[in-house]
Fold this sequence. Notes:
The protein is of the alpha/beta class. The protein is built from 8 helices and 7 strands, in the order E-H-E-E-H-E-H-E-H-E-E-H-H-H-H. Helix 1 links the parallel strand 1 and strand 2. The mean pLDDT is 91.
Amino acid sequence: xxxxIACEYSGRTRSAFRALGHNVWSCDLLPxxxxxxxxxxxxxxxxxxxxxxxxxxxxxxxxxLSNSGVRHLHTDPARWYKLDDGAAFxxxxxxxxxxxxxxxxxxxxxxxxxxxxxxxxxxxxxxxFGDKERKATCFWLKGxxxxxxxxxxxxxxxxxxxxxxxxLHYLSPGPNRxxxxxxxxxxxxxxxxxxxxGE
Length: 199
C-alpha cells in the first residue's frame, strides 16, 4: 500500500507502517529526526500530487484550531487570519483525492469546526492503546473505520500521579515543547498501521 504520513517529522507513524511492509513516506517542512531516506522535506500539497496514494494520515498544525487556545482569539485579532489559513489547509488535506484519509488533531474549538465543515469522527486516548497517559486525540476519517482499542490501561493510568497521567500538559515551556506534544503515541501509531494498513 502507498501510504503518506503528512506533517510528521518524528517518523513514528511512518515507522509503524514500514514495519508492516508498506511503501510509506513522511512529509514535513521540518527534516526528519531520524534522518530517514523515506522522509520528504517540503510542502505536502505538492507531495500529494506526486503519486497515487492509497492512504494518507495527516497531522496538520493545531495551534489556531484547538480548543485549548480558543481564548487567545479574543485577545489577539491576528489569530483569526491564522485560524482561517490553518482551517483551509486542514480542509484541503481532508478533501484530497486519496481513497483513505485520517486527519489527526486535538479537540477543535467551534470556530475551527465551522471552517472545516464538520466535527471529528472519533476521539481516542493513549490509554486505550497501551500508553498510560491522557491526551484527547481526534480523527476525521474518509474511507476508514474507527480505530478499535488494543490495550486498555486506564485503570493502571489512574493510579499514577496527575503529572504522569498528563505528562505532555505539564511539560516545561521551551522551544521544543510543541514538538514533543505533537509526537504520536506509539500505541496509536501501531494501531493505525495494523488496523488501517493491514498486517
